[in-house]
Automatic annotation (TrEMBL):
It is a single-pass type II membrane protein. Belongs to the glycosyltransferase 6 family. This is Globoside alpha-1,3-N-acetylgalactosaminyltransferase 1-like. Binds 1 Mn(2+) ion per subunit. UDP-N-acetyl-alpha-D-galactosamine binds at Y212, D297, V298, D299. Its main location: membrane. Its cofactor is Mn(2+).
């Protein structure tokens, strides 16, 4: 009985831990799963304070379960005693033994009653327990705030940040103190070693619909040479023609999943639907399968290292065409009717739509918001100037990225090299628009 209880408690704590981290150790078909949910539900009811406490302080949860079981046992014993006494009372009404048993039983009932009162008291009014747990909650909340959204209000007036200083030197930080990643601002060996210890999986979504399948070979082959080398990378490739996906030898711990989706006869529709597909993929799979996710254009090639320096909560890339442009000349959506509208007096950088990344949860929020805004526009028959890129720019303006990638991480092959960009890591290849897109 005792070992059984211990097992039950350990199982409860373990299961709660795994469930809260979205990594259920049991398969959905496992017959234990409904049981586990009942246990989690019932022990959550027994827990004083918010359920997250039992995650990190499992002992407190176990104590409370013990207390409850003790109370149950007491009540059980006294009730059994009571019924036994009622039966034997008729045969030996006034013996000494009988009196003693009656008293003992009354005592048990009193203890059970006191335990119940104690349990209720602890659950609803104990300041000492609550205080300890509250203090713990505050710590968690603080940590959460440090890492949470960097939202900024609309209409705020401040100077446009520069990417390259007047002396021609690159600026390594945004005015909200997020790093701008340039060659020379990080040690590749050190940063990769730090993140490698975390045993992370980086999901990478890429879309190759219609004639864009022709870009896949170079994209995948160059990624295998340069992109998160030595890390667990899982490519999720959306295409309407799985048979066109080239055979590319992947490194150790790297895999590719092909997902068949219908194409469209409008390229604008293809590019803007990427947000919706990303949102749904995160919901259905990535929450369980990855830590970080990047969504990348396929008409691209990696020319240099792209590693753990690019990891962060929410990642945007500065578009190579506009890093020295005044904000009022950014190609933002300027019609107030569109959800992507940005006034001329606002804007930090012009972000490229070819790269979006970060923690699965944060990319989910970004993709979901952009998809919702795109839907509102679509219902009003408005298409923003640069489809999902316009909506992404609006999102990043008011939800600041926690790390910004310099144009090293998104160049254009046709663009001549400049002094400030020392290394080109990822670049859009030259394409004949008329030949690859389904419509002009
Ligand atoms: N795309 C696609 N098929 C198309 C058009 C676009 O698969 O017919 C996808 C592809 O992943 C591409 C991305 O949408 O990289 C963005 O479109 P595109 O590269 O044409 O936009 P640009 O980078 O030229 O603005
Ligand atoms: Mn592109």
């Amino acid at each position: 009985m005792v070992s059984c209880l211990v097992e039950l408690q350990e199982l409860t704590v373990l299961t709660k831990h795994f469930c809260r981290h979205n990594k259920t150790p049991l398969s959905p078909s496992c017959p234990l799963l409904p049981c586990m949910h009942i246990i989690i539900w019932s022990t959550d009811r027994l827990t004083v304070g918010p359920p997250m406490i039992t995650d990190t302080k499992p002992k407190a949860g176990i104590m409370k379960v013990n207390f409850f079981l003790f109370f149950l046992a007491l009540t059980g014993f006294s009730l059994i005693g009571h019924s036994v006494l009622r039966v034997t009372k008729d045969t030996k009404p006034n013996s000494e033994m009988m009196k003693f048993l009656q008293n003992a039983n009354t005592l048990l009932l009193v203890v059970a009653f006191v335990s119940l009162t104690g349990l209720i008291f602890l659950g609803y009014s104990s300041t000492s327990l609550r205080y300890k747990e509250k203090r713990f909650c505050l710590n968690l909340t603080k940590e959460h705030q440090e890492n949470s959204n960097l939202q900024s209000p609309q209409g705020l007036s401040y100077k446009q940040p520069s990417v390259v200083g007047p002396d021609g030197k690159v600026v390594p930080v945004t005015p909200w103190l997020s790093p701008i990643v340039w060659e020379g601002t990080f040690d590749p060996l050190l940063i990769d070693s730090i993140y490698r210890q975390q045993n992370i999986t980086i999901a990478t979504t890429v879309f190759a619909l219609g004639k864009y399948t022709q870009f896949l070979k170079d994209f995948l082959e160059s990624a295998e040479q340069n992109y998160f080398v030595g890390f667990r990378v899982h490519y999720y490739l959306f295409t309407d023609q799985p048979e066109q996906v080239p055979e590319v030898k992947l490194g150790e711990e790297r895999q590719l999943t092909v997902l068949k989706v219908p194409s469209s006869n409008r390229w604008q529709e293809i590019t803007l639907r990427r947000m919706e597909k990303l949102e749904k993929l995160i919901e259905s799979r990535l929450v369980n399968e990855a830590d970080y996710v990047f969504s990348l254009d396929v008409d691209t090639k990696f020319y240099g290292r792209w590693g753990a320096e690019s990891l962060g909560r929410l990642i945007g890339v500065i578009h190579p065409g506009y890093y020295q442009t005044a904000r009022e000349q950014f190609p933002y959506e300027r019609r107030p009717e569109s959800q992507a509208f940005i006034p001329y007096a606002e804007g930090d950088y012009y972000y490229g739509g070819a790269v979006i990344g970060g923690l699965v949860k944060d990319v989910y929020e970004a993709a979901k918001t952009c998809r919702e805004q795109l839907d509102i526009d679509a219902a009003k028959s408005i298409e923003a100037a640069w489809q999902e890129e316009s909506h992404l720019n609006k999102y990043f303006l008011y939800n600041k990225p926690s790390k910004v990638l310099s144009p090293e991480y998104l160049w254009q092959d046709f663009k001549p090299h400049t002094n400030e960009v020392k290394i080109i890591r990822f670049s859009q290849v030259i394409k004949n628009y008329a030949a690859v897109r389904p419509n002009p």
